[in-house]
Amino acid sequence: MESPLRHNMTGNWGRILAGVLVIGLIPITAPLLADTGTDELAPVARHEKIGQLVTEFIQKSHYRHASVDDNLSSLVLDRYIEALDSNRVYLLASDVAAFEQYRYQLDNMVRSEPLNPVFDMFDVYRTRVRERLEYALKQIEKEPDFTVDEAYLFDREELPWATTSAELDEIWRKRVKNDALSLALTEKEWPEIQEVLEKRYSRFLKRMDQVKGDDVFETFMNAFAHTLDPHSSYLSPRNSEEYRIQMSLSYFGIGASLQTEDDYVMIINIIPGGPAAIDGSLQPKDKITAVAQGEDGEMVDVIGWRLDDVVQLIRGPAETVVRLQVMPAGALPGAEEKIISLTRNQVKLEEQAAKSEIISIPRDGRDWSIGVIEVPSFYRDYSALSNGDKDYKSTTKDVKRLIGELESQGIDGLIIDLRNNGGGHLTEATALSGLFIDNGPVVQLRNSNGRISRLDDPDPVPRVAFNGPLAVLVIRYSASASEIFAAAIQDYARGVIIGQQTFGKGTVQNLYSLDQYVRRPDDEGLGQLTLTIGKYYRVTGESTQHRGVDPDIALPSHIDATVVGESVRDSALPWDTIRTTKFRAGDPLDHTITSLTANHASRSKDDPDFKYLLDGIRNAEEARARTTMSLNKEARLAERASNLEKSLERENIRRAALQLEPLESIEALESLEAPDIHLDQAVSIITDLAIIREVEAVPTQTAQYIE
């Protein structure tokens, strides 16, 4: 069971060509471009065979039991157009109108008819891309006037399609001007800006000429699969082989999953135990704009590059340095960028392992000790286990050991930190839950045939590793196995869930190698299909799909739940319920949670760190709400300076309230380690819970039978 953030996500072909690629651990899960090709793009017999196989699998095995009919065909057409041009900057309204003739024919094509119209649509798109890039190259023959007061509308996803080439010309004039201004703000002179943009646009134009038939077919098949749910996808033979190679872990990288969005390579997930996770500077949604080798190598602009080409720059020998120029998450195009230096290495299991610390907090005349165990993922070393090694690494074994170490030091409460934990092995999620409940069911599974099974605490002996005050800290990036664990703790009334609504990935996928289902596949092979075949359910019968796990006590977050999470994906499977299974829960925590929430609200009202967090979230929301930006250089410089001054002012207000020395410069602010406000709030809340438990002297878990 993988993190949802490691699965394929849709995007436009201009995201060249939509996909997720992981540096250091997780495999490619979306199409890459081929290195060579011709202008001739047409389906081959193999594509029709694959289409027939995929259609059969979808109708027989997908959880939705979807019919491949006219209704599905209509959805596929919309998604295919979106995959080609999601920001609506290439195709004309007349092009899209011409595609309407295929709206109710794609189901027949994928089942038994020639797929030529799919390639015809792509050919129209490719023609428009060539027109736009040739226009962009002409625009950089002359330096733009950055003193004119005009704005660039960079988000066009919800706008009507352009009706004329002249309308697209104006859109692209401003786009090119913004690209140039973004480079000018890095103190580059016009000749250098001109050279960078000429290479960028020419490179993208060349890539369009290198597209092969398998690339077009794969994008269409992913549009087809994604109409069913976000986690079903198709990999071409070439990318299936890349998947296999990467799973061997025989290369070195930075430990991050990447996706192209528009012309940018964006960080999707940070892999626990990898160089990026250890460094801590790189964050999800950051965009990589340039890459350099070594401590003093020249930065190579990678905007508009193919995803696999960027990956080749980032990968390299172990213990060598790669430098990334990064646009921080949420920053507007052209915002000031940062340089992150990382040492390449393999993802290390020991770095992926759970870690602990004790945080002391003064309250009521004494110091309370709160143990914190950070669980980056749900891992198990199956290789060591299969070789008979009794000391194999696993999340549950490590956490159990850490609990023992913490209790030997006399902790008053415990926090399990699952922030950014995107999932892992289901067996570890159930086993870890078993450390905190006597025994019983942890999660239910329903397959596409409606059959329901359940997974119980694997330890048959009714015992717990820790029975004191417990909290689980989660955010929007806590997903999959993390949600199963958090849900079990909540349903058994074993602890308090603190933080943000989790991701909502509650589906099960199966991988089908299509070559196994034909007697004699051709030399090219048929690729592989990932299909959603089941859903997870809590012991209460509620699905974790779509809704995730709601915290008992919510904390504000910079992560926008309207942008990140299963619920924002239009093809996500819905939330639903099945029958409650029998389980023994503790006494309800409703009154305790009400008391904890009231204490938290009262305390945070005057907490400088909490006010700082809220102010930062408001600033981020204002930035996200913007869809335009000025193309006036002086206005952009003034805006940047203003933002930096506001950041410094916010920090100094916080420091003054905490009786700390103020910072005197932006440089000092940038080198400052930010406080972990969510963890601090969780520590205060679990201290409240420890005090309540001590005052009431009530056992943490009282058996209560639920039918």
- Domains, number: 3
Outline the biggest β-sheet.
7 strands, antiparallel
Strand content: 15-25%
Described by the principal axes of the CA atoms, the overall outline is globular
H/I helix tally? 21
Percent helix, as a range, is 25-40%
Q: Mean pLDDT, rounded to whole units? A: 86
Give the oligomeric state of the chains in this entry, treating copies of one chain as homo and distinct chains as hetero: single chain
Radius of gyration: 27 Å
Content-based structural category: alpha+beta
Within CATH, the superfamily of the largest domain carries the name 2-enoyl-CoA Hydratase, Chain A, domain 1
How far is the N terminus from the C terminus?
A: 29 Å
Kindly identify the CATH topology of the largest domain.
Answer: 2-enoyl-CoA Hydratase, Chain A, domain 1
Contiguous low-pLDDT stretches (5 residues minimum) are: 1-38, 245-251, 700-707
Please count the beta strands (DSSP E, at least 2 residues each).
22
CATH architecture of the largest domain: Alpha-Beta Complex
At the first level of CATH, the class of the largest domain is Alpha Beta
Q: What does this protein look like?
A:
With 707 residues, the protein is of the alpha+beta class. The protein has three domains: 32-235, no CATH class; 244-343, PDZ domain (Pdz3 Domain); 353-583, 2-enoyl-CoA Hydratase, Chain A, domain 1 (Alpha-Beta Complex). It is built from 21 helices and 22 strands. Strands 1, 4, 5, 6, 7, 8 and 9 form a seven-stranded antiparallel beta sheet that branches. A six-stranded mixed beta sheet has the order 10-11-12-15-16-19, sandwiched between helices. Strands 3, 13, 14, 17 and 18 form a five-stranded antiparallel beta sheet that branches. A hairpin with a 6-residue loop joins strand 6 (287-293) and strand 7 (300-301). The chain is globular. The model is unreliable at 1-38, 245-251 and 700-707 (pLDDT under 50).
